[in-house]
């Protein structure tokens, strides 16, 4: 009979993941690479330290840090190494039951929403129990057959394709999507961000026997470009060109990266009225726009002659805009009726350094800002706390942070005081050094406080009474002899 090892999620680790997501919200993907680093922590069970008996349930925690560009880990994988089906999910923690003493090689992975993964291994040694006969899994002959389908398999980038494994006789999977992305999920959904023709392959494996089957479909996914050419000219030339409030150059200009769909075109030039129109970009035909600019009214009759405009864009978009200390919206934005002269513009975005710039605005003119925000350097680290027994209250620098096992994010680099408290156990206090961008592991064995029972107290009281009586008898005898 084939024995499948089960695994269940630890609820407290779900809380850890919620905290992690609160600190690392999933935003627009950068797709620059896999998670920057990943930790692997053993908690609860202690299968590697105890030989008291099998089966033994071991807990694992494997949190990961974002990629250098800011892509946050959203999916996790762990192969337990004992022939049981591996774990795949969105939570960075799992427990697993081992039934045999052996040296197991565990493969663990963390991936971003772009299906870029970091892979590492951990060797877990489980000693033979002192008593008892371990359960030995039996693997019957297995012949997995890999097969899959995807839908839709063609479209414009970015194109999301839902892949479904139709394999038989398998319980572990490994996909290659042809664009550098991979996945260990059974039915992954993958997004192709660039145009191209992609070959997709699937490896279906029976974990118990290790038998593998491969399926590959050549040129299976076809993704076409969503970009088209837009040529803009003006009479007279030299006008500033904005597409959807983003500065694109000076006329005449040819833009080869304009997305398919409807866009708002704005041309602005000192001494001329703004030219605006809607432009529809279709996949099959380049678009040419020729604009005739109309001279503005003389300055004496133009009510806006003492003001100008500021067009502001940022990467990433959505930055808060403050001009001369006054909040003026979020990027991209065009600010009107800006008094002529110099103005201080500040852009703020969570996770990025503030951007400050002084810009000069001319009468009736459009000043443009295209800001590249710089990500704030990592100044915090994490602390993974594991206690035996678990369930201890964890406080850092006097502030409650959760119940062990717990991973505490966002701790400033440097020294911190950690206090562990658990009823019927002695308090445990220590000083921990946190390094920016890293997860520090702290494991503590708590000492149980001895509390005598009622029977113990009665016995102790009886013993004291007996000692007192013996002392009185001895004194009485001495007194008689002296007489």
Describe, in plain words, how this protein is organized in 3D.
With 483 residues, the chain is mainly beta. The protein has a domain of 138 residues: Immunoglobulins (Immunoglobulin-like). The strands form eleven sheets. The chain has a five-stranded mixed sheet with strand order 11-17-16-13-14, with no helix packed on it. The longest helix has 29 residues. The N terminus is likely disordered.
Return the CATH class of the domain at 1-138: Mainly Beta
Overall pLDDT, averaged?
84
User: What is the SS-derived class?
Assistant: mainly beta
| Largest sheet report | 5 strands, mixed
The proportion of residues in beta strands is: over 45%
Unreliable segments (pLDDT under 50, ≥5 consecutive)? Answer: 1-28, 300-304
Question: What's the layout of helices and strands?
Answer:
Elements: H1 11-23, E1 37-38, E2 41-43, E3 56-61, E4 64-65, E5 73-79, E6 87-89, E7 93-98, E8 102-112, E9 117-126, E10 148-151, E11 154-156, E12 159-165, E13 172-176, E14 182-183, E15 189-192, E16 196-205, E17 212-224, E18 227-235, E19 240-243, E20 246-250, E21 253-259, E22 261-268, E23 275-281, E24 287-292, E25 307-315, E26 320-323, E27 326-330, E28 333-339, E29 341-348, E30 355-361, E31 366-372, E32 380-388, E33 393-396, E34 399-403, E35 406-412, E36 414-421, E37 428-434, E38 439-445, H2 454-482
Parallel strand pairs: 11-17, 18-24, 25-31, 32-38
Antiparallel strand pairs: 1-4, 2-3, 3-7, 5-6, 5-8, 8-9, 10-12, 12-15, 13-14, 13-16, 16-17, 18-21, 19-20, 19-22, 22-23, 25-28, 26-27, 26-29, 29-30, 32-35, 33-34, 33-36, 36-37
């Amino acid at each position: 009979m084939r024995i499948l090892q089960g695994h269940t999620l630890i609820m407290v680790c779900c809380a850890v993941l919620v905290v992690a997501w609160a600190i690392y919200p999933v935003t627009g993907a950068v797709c620059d690479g896999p998670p920057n680093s990943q930790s692997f922590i053993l908690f609860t069970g202690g299968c590697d330290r105890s030989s008291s008996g099998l089966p033994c349930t071991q807990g694992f925690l494997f949190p990961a840090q974002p990629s250098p560009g800011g892509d946050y880990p959203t999916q996790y994988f762990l192969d337990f190494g004992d022939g049981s089906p591996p774990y795949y999910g969105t939570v960075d923690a799992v427990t697993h039951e081992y039934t045999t003493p052996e040296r197991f090689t565990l493969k663990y992975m963390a991936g971003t929403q772009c299906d870029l993964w970091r892979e590492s291994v951990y060797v877990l040694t489980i000693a033979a129990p002192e008593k008892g006969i371990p359960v030995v899994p039996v693997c019957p002959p297995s012949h997995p057959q890999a097969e899959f389908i995807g839908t839709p398999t063609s479209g414009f980038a970015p194109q999301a394709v839902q892949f479904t494994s139709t394999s038989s006789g398998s319980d572990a999977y490994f996909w290659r999507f042809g664009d550098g992305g991979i996945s260990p999920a059974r039915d992954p959904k993958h997004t192709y961000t660039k145009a191209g023709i992609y070959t997709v392959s699937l490896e279906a494996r029976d974990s118990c026997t290790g038998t593998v089957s491969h399926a590959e479909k050549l040129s299976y996914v076809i993704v076409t470009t969503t970009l088209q050419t837009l040529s803009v000219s003006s009479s007279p030339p030299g006008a500033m060109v904005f597409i959807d409030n983003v500065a694109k150059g000076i006329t005449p200009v040819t833009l080869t990266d304009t997305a398919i769909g409807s866009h708002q075109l704005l041309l602005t030039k000192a001494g001329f009225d703004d030219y605006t129109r809607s432009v529809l970009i279709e996949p099959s035909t380049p678009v040419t726009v020729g604009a005739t600019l109309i001279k503005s009214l003389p300055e004496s009759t133009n009510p806006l002659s003492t003001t100008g405009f500021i067009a502001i864009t940022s990467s990433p978009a959505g930055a808060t805009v403050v001009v001369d200390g006054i909040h003026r919206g979020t990027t991209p934005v065009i600010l009107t009726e800006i008094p002529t002269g110099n103005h201080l513009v500040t852009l703020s975005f969570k996770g990025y350094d503030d951007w400050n710039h002084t810009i000069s605005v001319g009468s009736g003119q459009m000043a443009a800002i295209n800001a590249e925000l710089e990500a704030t350097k990592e100044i915090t680290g994490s602390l993974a706390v594991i206690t035996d027994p678990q369930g201890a209250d964890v406080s850092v620098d006097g502030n409650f942070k959760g119940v062990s096992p717990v991973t505490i994010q966002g701790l400033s680099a440097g020294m911190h005081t950690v206090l562990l408290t658990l009823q019927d156990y002695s308090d445990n206090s220590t000083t921990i050094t946190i390094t920016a961008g890293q997860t520090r592991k702290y494991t503590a064995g708590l000492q149980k406080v001895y509390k005598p029972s009622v029977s113990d107290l009665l016995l102790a009281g009886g013993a004291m009474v007996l000692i007192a009586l013996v002392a009185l008898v001895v004194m009485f005898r001495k007194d008689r002899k002296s007489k």
